Amino acid sequence: MIRYLFILFLCIIFWVANAQDQSLDESIRIEILESRVKYLFGIEKLNGLIELSEYYTINNGRKATRYAKQAFILAEEMFLDAYGKTKTDSSNYLPKTYLQLGKAYFHYNKFIDAKDAFDHADKASINNNYEAGISEARLYLDKIDSLAQSGVDINRNFFSQSIKSLELKEKISKATLDFNIATKVNSAETHFKKYEYDEAIQDYQDAVNLLKNKGDENYIWSINERIEEITRLKNIDKTIKKNYEDAVAEQEQIVKELGPRTIDTDSSIQIPEINTIISSQKEIEIVKLELKSDSLIALAGEFLEKKDYDQAELYRSLSLQVEDEIKKREDTETQLTLLRQQKQLADLDLHTKNIELVGQRRAKQNIIFGTLLLIALALALLTLYITKRRDHKKLGRAYYTLEETKSKLTDAERNIRKLLRQQVSEDIAKELMAEGTFLTTKKSFVCIMFLDIRGFTSWAENHAPEEIIEYQNKVFGFMIDIINEFNGNVNQLLGDGFMATFGAPKSFGNDCQNAFDAATKIISTLRRKINDNEIMKTKVGIGLHAGYVVTGNVGTEYRKQYSITGNTVILASRIEQLNKEFGSQLIISKEVFDKLEQYDGESAFTDVIVKGRSKPIQILTVQ
Length: 623
Known about the structure:
It is a single chain. This protein is 70% helix and 9% strand. It is of the alpha+beta class. Among the domains are: 23-156, Serine Threonine Protein Phosphatase 5, Tetratricopeptide repeat (Alpha Horseshoe), CATH 1.25.40; 437-621, Nucleotide cyclase, GGDEF domain (Alpha-Beta Plaits), CATH 3.30.70. Strands 1, 2, 3, 4, 5, 6, 7 and 8 form an eight-stranded mixed beta sheet that branches.
């Protein structure tokens, strides 16, 4: 039994060690893949990114999401056309990439982003008839719905709502890839125009590698054709150079073998030296070579007539060599002419490309500036997010009660306006609401009315408070309405009377006439209501006086009242009290009478001395 336990223990140790070795090997392989993936292109790079994202999905959500995003951008670049339609994808790379991005988001608790990715995976799988992708995408979508129903907060955070970083990165990556491809192609064309064929081929091959990431097969095919064309031109150029070098070597060999010779002294024709027939290849002209060829043919003919066949064959052979050299020279000149024409066309094309390159550089600068601007905006929004994060939930709750609060504030404002108009006149209420609690103190010409109910104090002593209030409402109700009708303002209710002002805070023309008309109507209306038994028998006294007063708010910060002050107010009160002495109901001062435009009664004024005045004042008893 112990032996079996020992063997089991050894097996466990061996299994743990083997698992650790496998884990270590896997870790090393992933590290190597991470260092190499940036140098891969096309399908190889896509497979590497997906593998890295799958490896980090459980243990490192940030890395898994980063590699999944890179794979998503690369896959859409390779397998979606300019209109967003799927290209040929026989291996279902696009839905697989969406699925892996969704898994990375899901395990990183970004459920809204995961849902978007799985929705894309479901649609792409349906388009590709990829049954496994459809099943897996819908399985994860059901899990996310279950989490939402269970109460898990799956909302996208504030920063994700403000900036879709994945879409921004995708746009920047695509723009950078297109710019790098264009730069490589322009560089290759520049090298080609300088006859630097190897450098041009290398730049074109780099462009092909970048295009593998873009998935543009037609563009790759056209660049490969361009590489083959440059390779052919490179081989032609090598052939021309080799032929030229062979001709030079052959001519130098002829010079070494023949050397200078002369014919017999009987002949008047000298054998020309080879050095004068064939000069340096770079300096000899085709015309001179043709003359030399003609001379050699003539010499061969002369020796042939003399039956000196060796010399004739020698000169004929030399003439053939010169003809060959002429032909090579002509071929070389033709090729050089073609190359010059190509160079002119290349220079023109290079000028055009340079203009395009300047435009691309400006576009790149604009892209960089735009990117920096977006980064700055992102940082600003991030700062705002961090600052407001603590208040975010409170703002959310406040949003739902905002309409209710707004309704309450509206009702409160309406009640305040109503209450304010009950306490002060309409004009004063409007001025208070317009200027706040502070009303500008100013001097104004007004007409002051004092009204007093005769015998009110003794009557009130024998009646209940409810009866007193009911009586006051009946009497003062219609009187205040008449005051308002003639643009007056009741400033104070005095229990058995009131004070009213005509002309403050706003004048409506002849304020004295308005005050006089209001007073006469109050007396006539009171008489009618008594006759109709609407109110009990009541006698009033009214005094009117006009002059300058000071208006404004008087009081402390906690309690203020709109006040009318000045001698005019005091005299108006004294004039009203004279009604008891004269047994009248309405007395006006000479100042009021002088302002009246309409008056039909007598105008017999009386001089009286009032309390507080050393000089008499003139009054008129109206009724």
